[in-house]
Each structure stands twice: as structure tokens, then as C-alpha cells.
Amino acid sequence: MPTNEAMKKIHTPDFQTLFESAPGLYLVLTPALTIVAVSDAYLNATMTKREEILDRGLFEVFPDNPDVPTATGIRNLRASLDRVLANRVPDAMAVQKYDIRRPESEGGGFEERYWSPVNSPILGADGKVDYIIHRVEDVTDFIRLKQEESEQRRITERLQTRAAEMEAEIFRKTQQIQIAERLRTRAAEMEAEIFRRAQQIQEVNNQLQRELDARKQAEELLRASEERFHLMVKHVKDYAIFMLDAEGHVATWNAGAERIKGYRADEIIGRHFSCFYTPDDVQAGKPEQLLKEAETKGRCEEEGWRVRKDGAQFWANVVFTALRDQHGTLLGFTKVTRDITERKRAEQEIQQNSVALEAANKELDAFSYSVAHDLRAPLRA
């Protein structure tokens, strides 16, 4: 039967392959801004090759467009990266115009691009920045669509102006053929109706725009939060990190949780987390007590036996943290579990060895006393 260490090796994923195959556009930089890793999606988006950019400076590979004297791509990106290094927190940038150099095989020169970048630090054990993950989203098509919409609005305005001029001309000619009063009345009615409907359409458009802006902002905040969470989970190998809803049902699942507890996400999401506890703990209401303590105090931590999917038990360190919205309403909990069975066994072995050593010392004392007594007996005789 494979050992625990063998099983760990069998199921350890190839994180380099996973990173390079990720659908997102990612660069990994050193604090000196040297490129040390890049995803395939990033290479495709920037028309570059991995062997040509690794171990080179970021701005050596991606310079500003020399044909655009006002280009600010390098300046803005360097400022963001400096903030990440100084503050050691992620830095989300506004949409940037940063043109990309075309390969000579495709005609050379630069291609106009727009990006939405986020720069996030990866901290070492000493709290210093070891790497920076530079993630971007190519929003060029979106920006161009906005520009096209602006041009369409200008065309519409010119057409409306021309229409107004034509209406004025028709009205003038109508006056010339002696039906001015009737046409003037009808025109006034039509203009009033057009104005009223135009106001209604404008108000509807304004409301739709406000809703779209609010939804886009909410989606961007949610995406940024999910990306930070996924990044954090990706770099944690020995912890099960997941969320519970307010009633204690599993809402999310990560690879560490699957490795430690044995459940796949589609097997466990929606089930109550009490399935991780021993029958005695469940009967005693321990899962509910821990959630209540976390809800009351905001956090609770404890150690105890937990049950894997296959029924095997392991000794775990568990931390619950209550999650609340801005109004204080309980949304659910985060749960972080660490398998410390080996540490527990080591502590038990140390305790058993201490007991055995104490017993051996007592036996040695008794033997020494007996020998001393026997040696003194002939002397007395």
C-alpha cells in the first residue's frame, strides 16, 4: 500500500504547467522587474515567445511606441509596480494605452492596444516581496467599440441637425403655399410629441447607462476579489480553505480541501460541514457550537479529530472566521483546516517515552538501593 508521502507525490500537480496553461494573461516578475514566468495566453496576446522574453527586463521587452511621443505606458506601469514593492499590496491600474511591438514576420512596427492591469505581490516568509504577478486583460475591442459608439452619436447628432434644417425648409415652403397655419399647428404637435418621446428615450438610456456602470463596477470588484482569493489558494499547499454559508453548508472548495478531506467539489458543495466530524462530536452538537462561537466572537480556533471521506480520522487544527456585510449581516464563514496528525503523534510518542523513562528511573533507583543494602549487610556482620 502506498505511503502518505508517496500519495502526496502522486497527486501533486505540475504548477508550472498549470500556470502556463491558465486562460488568464499573467507575467511573473522579480523585484528587479525581470520576467521569470509567463502564461501562454499572455504570449499570444503580446505576440511574443517565451524563450525570447524570459530573464529579460520588462521594459526592455515592452518599450513605449516610439511613434507616439506622448505615450505613458512605461511611466504608469513602473509607478504601479513601485507602489506594489513599497506597500506590498495589490495595485489595480486604470485602463492603459500600451502599444505592442509586432514581430518582423508580421510587418514590424507597433499595434495599438488597451489593457486593464492588476499587479499583485507574492511575499516571502520574511514578509518581503519575492515576486510580482502582473495580470492584464486586453480591452482593446471594448475601447474601440466605445469609440465607434461615440462616432455613431456624432453622426446621429449631425443627422438630427440636418433633419431640423429640412423641417425648417419644409415649413418655410409650406408658408409660401398658403397652408402655413395648419402645417404650423401640426408641426408644433409633432415637435412636442417628438420632444416628449426623446426625453423619455433619453431618460431610459440614462437609467440603462447607470445600471450598466453599476453592474460593471460590481463585476470588476467581484472579479478582483475572486482573483486575489484564487491566487492565495493556489499558493497554499497544506491547507483546506473553503467557505460555509450562514447555516454551515459548504459553498466553495479548493484543491487543498480535496487532498486533505478526500471529497471532490461536486461531492461536497451543498452538504453540511458536520460530515467532517466524528459521530460523538456530531451528537454532542460540537459543529453548531463552533459556528456559534465564531458568529459571536468573529473567530474561533480549535484542534480535534476529523473524518475523511473514506472514514479515516486525522488530527486537525481548524480556524473559523465569520463573514459579514457592511451592515453587519452574517453572510457565512471561512474555514481553514490543517492536518497536524504527524505532530500529534510525535507529541504522544514524546509523552509515552517520558512515562517509560520515569518508570525506568524508578526501577534503577530501587535496584541501586537493593545493591547498596546488600553491600552493607556483610560489613555489619
Account of the 3D structure:
This protein is α+β, with helices and mostly antiparallel strands and 381 residues long. It has three domains: 128 residues, Beta-Lactamase (2-Layer Sandwich), CATH 3.30.450.20; 62 residues; 104 residues, Beta-Lactamase (2-Layer Sandwich), CATH 3.30.450. 54% of the residues lie in helices and 20% in strands. Strands 1, 2, 3, 4, 7 and 8 form a six-stranded antiparallel beta sheet that branches. Strand 1 and strand 2 form a beta hairpin. It is elongated and about 155 Å long. The protein starts with a helix and ends with a helix.
Determine the strand fraction and express it as a percent band: 15-25%
Count of the domains = 3
Q: Give the structural class.
A: alpha+beta
- In DSSP terms (H or I, runs of 4 or more residues), the helix count works out at 13
Order of helices and strands: HHEEHHHHEEEEEEHHEHHHHEEEH
Radius of gyration: 35 Å
Total strands:
12
| CATH A-level architecture of the largest domain | 2-Layer Sandwich
Quaternary structure type: single chain
Q: State the helical fraction.
A: 40-55%
The main β sheet shows up as: 6 strands, antiparallel
Termini Cα gap: 67 Å
| CATH H-tier superfamily of the largest domain | PAS domain
The first-level CATH class of the largest domain is given as Alpha Beta
* Low-confidence spans: none
Overall form: elongated
Summarize the structure.
By secondary structure, this protein is of the alpha+beta class. The protein has 13 helices and twelve strands.
